[in-house]
Amino acid sequence: MDKTEIRKSAICVFCGSSYGTDPAFRDAARAVGAGIAKIGHALVFGGGSPGLMGDVARAARGAGTAVEGILPGFLRDVEPPLTQGETTEIVPDLFVRKQKMMDRAAGFIVLPGGLGTYDEFFEVLTSAQLGVQIKPIILVNVNGYFDPLEAMLQASVRNGFVRKENLGLYRIADSADAALAMMAEALR
Ligand code: AMP
């Protein structure tokens, strides 16, 4: 698959550069990676091999789809890329990485993660809110990991800081399979 094709049909996954404590997180990461291949898309992601992001990429590659990583140069040692099967673009910083991931993806799947994952989720959500870029955003709520985030967002609506309809800019799936089905439907 050449780069043009990657750009046409890629799904971007945001997730932890750690594994987290629940083994279900890794299961979901692998299922998302393999599932992206199964529904006929390439993967765009942050480019590193550690944590859930590495699991997603290895699973996608193992299932035979193109994997494109976008990695800031300064993270090369902290989050080294996969040693094979991944096209890695080295970019100057986190901002360029986010911009490129956003531009290249047709939609976003968010798995459990930490501050970087939240940052990326809110970047695509606020972009959608402002109409800059509206693409499907699906959270995979593995064992309720995102329940507190959802509660916070609902509280923001109740307190008059977020318009209710903006919570319709993302969807929550209970499993990797459900997320992939939602994404396939949204991109059809
Ligand atoms: P984390 O969820 O914190 O494990 O981070 C997941 C991914 O987001 C990793 O590849 C981090 O390098 C990346 N990341 C961390 N902080 C930021 C940020 N401020 N903007 C964009 N990406 C970030």
Distance between the termini: 20 Å
Helices and strands, in order, run as: HEHEHEEHEHEHEH
Query: Which bin fits the share of residues in helices?
Result: 40-55%
Ligands, deduplicated: adenosine monophosphate
The major pleated sheet works out as: 7 strands, parallel
Number of distinct beta strands: 7
Please report which band the strand proportion falls in: under 5%, 5-15%, 15-25%, 25-35%, 35-45% or over 45%: 15-25%
The shape is globular
Describe the overall structure.
The protein is an alpha/beta fold and 188 residues long. The chain has a single domain, classed as Rossmann fold, CATH 3.40.50.450. It contains 7 helices and 7 strands. The chain has a 7-stranded parallel sheet, sandwiched between helices. The longest helix has 16 residues. The two termini are 20 Å apart. Bound molecules: adenosine monophosphate.
Entry keywords:
188 residues; alpha/beta; Rossmann fold; 7-stranded parallel beta sheet; binds adenosine monophosphate
How do you describe this structure in short?
The chain is 45% helix and 18% strand.
